Amino acid sequence: MVIRGHLELGVLSADLGDGDPSRGGAILRLDFNPPQERVPVFEIIDLATLHERRRRRGRRPDLVHRVDFHTLTLITEGSGDHAVDFVTYPCRPGTLLWVRPGQVQRFVRPGTANGTHLLFTPAFPPHTSSADRLVKEWYGPACWQLGARPEYAVLSTLLGQMRTEYDRQEESVSAEILQLLLATVLLQIDRLPHPDSGGDPHAGGEVYARFRAELERSYATTRRAADYAHRLGYTVKTLTRACIAATGQPVKHVIDARVALEAQRLLAHTDEPVATIARRLGFLEATNFGKFFTRRIGVTPGAFRHTHQGG
């Protein structure tokens, strides 16, 4: 199931990963590249417009891909399904989706869902705002079901203000106003209750934030908690305490979960041999990778691939 060539996805252009695990290997990767850059590294459109552009180009609606930027979508009408890293979320009015750089997604069933769709790189929000921290985190909830709660009205109003500003005459659009409005949107989202029981990332404080950043850089080269502690200047005990506060799990579990997620992505969405994936993720022997994967996921790599690639 290797996807070759190039894909235009609405306002996006596609580029294949270069083989580095941090670039996604053979998983289709889309870079931020709007056809008309009214505001650098920022775009706002209707979700229905995105799907219509894809249809006009004869593109499949369910292509698996990663993005190199953030997308925020607030569904305002209709229904559909969207998958992010093996979890399928039903979309209906009041659904908020946040897909972060590197995550694997696909429109399982676009259906009739429509709403406001923001695309922006981590460089766009103002660096003086605490929202800057939110966009630098690769992890976090992907979906909130707000329904008709007051938070939906607040976000809908803010996004409407952003759309009004973005649609002004090009020479009068203020990137600063859009940056500040986006920062407000992100901070409002940060206030929302965590939609799952995975803990609160902020509970781990700076220790957990620094650890997750280092984990994202190094998960393919080391799975030893002691290595992360040494690089960050902490003890393993300190890292474990921060991870338990943030996720309810010890540091080794968090490390292994990150490696297992990347393994699932590569097994499900590429046809790379298992041995190649094992080496990509830092395993010297494919048998050790197989044991690790089976222990973490509950099935062998081959069985997992068979299930997700339909045989």
Strand order of the largest sheet: 1-2-3-5-10-7-8
Biggest sheet record: 7 strands, mixed
Radius of gyration: 20 Å
* Proportion of beta-strand residues: 15-25%
The total count of helices amounts to 11
Strand/helix succession: EEEEHEEEEEEEHEHHHHHHHHH
Structural class: alpha+beta
Mean pLDDT: 85
Quote the distance from N terminus to C terminus.
Answer: 11 Å
- Pick out the low-confidence regions: 1-25
The shape is globular
Provide structural commentary:
With 311 residues, the chain is an alpha+beta fold. Helix content is 42%, strand content 19%. It contains eleven helices and twelve strands. The protein has a seven-stranded mixed sheet. A hairpin with a 2-residue loop joins strand 1 and strand 2. Helix 5 crosses helix 6 and helix 5 packs across helix 7. The longest helix is centred in the C-terminal third of the chain and has 19 residues. The N terminus is likely disordered.
Strand-helix topology:
Layout: E1 8-9, E2 12-16, E3 28-31, E4 42-46, H1 47-56, E5 65-67, E6 70-77, E7 80-84, E8 87-91, E9 95-99, E10 104-109, E11 114-120, H2 131-136, E12 143-145, H3 150-166, H4 175-191, H5 205-218, H6 225-232, H7 236-247, H8 251-269, H9 274-280, H10 286-297, H11 301-309
Parallel strand pairs: 3-5
Antiparallel strand pairs: 1-2, 2-3, 4-11, 5-10, 6-9, 6-11, 7-8, 7-10, 9-12
